[in-house]
From TrEMBL:
Name of the protein: Tyrosine-type recombinase/integrase
GO terms of biological process kind: DNA integration; DNA recombination
GO molecular function, a single term: DNA binding
Matches recorded under PANTHER family: PROPHAGE INTEGRASE (PTHR30629), PROPHAGE INTEGRASE INTS-RELATED (PTHR30629:SF2)
Keyword Isomerase attached: no
InterPro entries, A to Z: DNA_brk_join_enz (IPR011010), Integrase-like_cat_sf (IPR013762), Integrase_catalytic (IPR002104), Integrase_DNA-bd_sf (IPR038488), Integrase_DNA_bind_dom (IPR025166), Integrase_recombinase_N (IPR010998), Phage_Integrase (IPR050808)
SUPFAM superfamilies: DNA breaking-rejoining enzymes (SSF56349)
The keyword DNA-binding appears for this protein: yes
Source species of the chain: Aurantimonas aggregata
Pfam assignment, any one: Phage_integrase
Length: 406
């Protein structure tokens, strides 16, 4: 068969009484297997150092593109040339893996797009980055060397209690954040570990999920804080002074407050995603998939006013290199002090936007659409920019903008 391309793979059809194989003519040993049931996957076939023929499944055709699979196949076949046996390594992992080994497996498979998360989509890059941070900060130090099959519910709930009490807390190092622990972090980390074990059990990497039945600690039930109208005005006053010193940072903070965008949705915003004619931003990827998010006219004017620096594609370019601006949390800390407010965070700006929308009488469904929430398919209903939602975005944006300008 010629090179395995998207068109060639899509043309393959299963047969009712036997497995069908198609092999790539450029990368020897790389192919596709179709089962009579219709299940299909990319595979490699090779002989190990002992001369034994081995076959290794790389991933589903529904998850991997031909080029992604080809790259993975090239990596695995490269190990074979070095005398290693990838199939044996996977088999050994299924024996008695440690928690760290299972986490490594998860990060590799999810990073390659072979594990499906919410709504049966590959795990989002932002989610994977958070998972990696929790694994390195909390999981490896407390459970990394433990064998998964030996874990009990008591072990996992004790693990959660240690995180909540601050056992994994760390001081700031360089520009990094501060790890303080707490019930929220503890519960989310246990939930993440439950998901990792469930994925590993489903793939046969471990026999069962030891976290099933473990209870997540309840949160502190504190009422989520928002900025009042007076606090928004106070923040606006100090931001006007900050525009001369840090114009990019001040603009990024303003955009989050005017739109309810998540921190990375604002900071990593690219100019090509802005649709000025429709007054919206067309995100190719968010936590809940591709989205069209309506924005108000004040937010659109702010975006259009941002200067283009060099060849940067970002609306808010970084000071060094070609990446986007990243220091918004530090800027918010300084602005909070200057405005004499309790610490303001990117999430507080998002919650404030939602609260103002509620104050203006908009329904939970509309607010969810403005924020890009995907619960019960809300985002999908507004993918074509419902006129009422567009008007809501503009009214909320205008209200907050007038307070900022004092």
């Amino acid at each position: 068969m010629p090179k395995l391309t998207k068109r060639a793979v899509e043309a393959l059809r299963p047969e009712p009484d036997r497995e069908v194989f198609a092999w790539d003519n450029e990368l020897r040993g790389f192919g596709v297997r179709l089962r009579p049931s219709g299940a299909s996957s990319y595979i490699i076939q090779y002989r190990n150092s002992e001369g034994r023929s081995r076959r290794l499944t790389l991933g589903s055709l529904q998850v991997l593109t031909p080029e992604q699979a080809r790259g993975l196949a090239r990596d695995k076949l490269g190990l074979v040339c070095k005398g290693e046996d990838p199939a044996d390594e996977r088999k050994a992992l299924r024996g008695a893996p440690t928690v760290s080994q299972v986490c490594d497996w998860y990060l590799e498979e999810a990073g390659a797009g072979r594990l499906l998360g919410r709504k049966r989509r590959p795990v989002a890059a932002t989610t994977l980055a958070l998972d990696r941070s929790r694994i390195d900060t909390h999981v490896r130090p407390l459970l990394g060397t433990r064998m998964v099959r030996a874990l009990t519910i008591a072990d996992l709930e004790t693990f959660q209690a240690h995180i909540a009490s601050g056992k994994t807390a760390k001081e700031r190092v360089g520009r990094g954040g501060v790890t303080t622990g707490g019930t929220g972090v503890a519960g989310r980390t246990l939930g993440m570990l439950h998901t990792i074990f469930e994925q590993a059990a489903r793939w046969g990497v471990i026999e069962t999920n030891p976290a099933k039945g473990a209870r997540k600690v309840a949160g502190d039930n504190k009422r989520e804080r928002r900025l009042s109208a007076a606090e928004v005005t106070a923040l606006g006053q100090v931001m006007r002074k900050a525009r001369d010193e840090s114009p990019t940072a001040a603009a990024a903070v303003t955009l989050m407050l005017l739109t309810g965008f998540r921190r990375m949705e604002a900071l990593a915003l690219r100019r090509e995603w802005i649709d000025a004619g429709a007054s919206c931003v067309r995100f190719p990827q968010t936590k809940t998939g591709a989205q069209v998010r309506p924005i108000g006219q004040a937010a659109l004017r702010l975006l259009q006013m941002q200067p283009i620096l060099g060849n940067s594609a970002f609306v808010f370019p970084g000071e060094i290199g070609n990446d986007h601006f990243v220091g918004v949390s530090r800027v918010l800390t300084r602005l909070s002090v200057a405005a004499k407010l309790e610490p303001v965070t990117p999430h507080l700006l998002r919650h404030t936007f939602a609260s103002f929308a509620g104050d203006l009488g908009y329904s939970e469904l509309t607010v969810a659409a403005l924020l890009g929430h995907a619960s019960r398919g809300v985002t999908q209903r507004y993918v074509h920019l419902d006129k009422a939602t567009q008007l809501a975005a503009d009214e909320v944006c205008r209200t907050i903008s007038e307070l900022l300008e004092g």
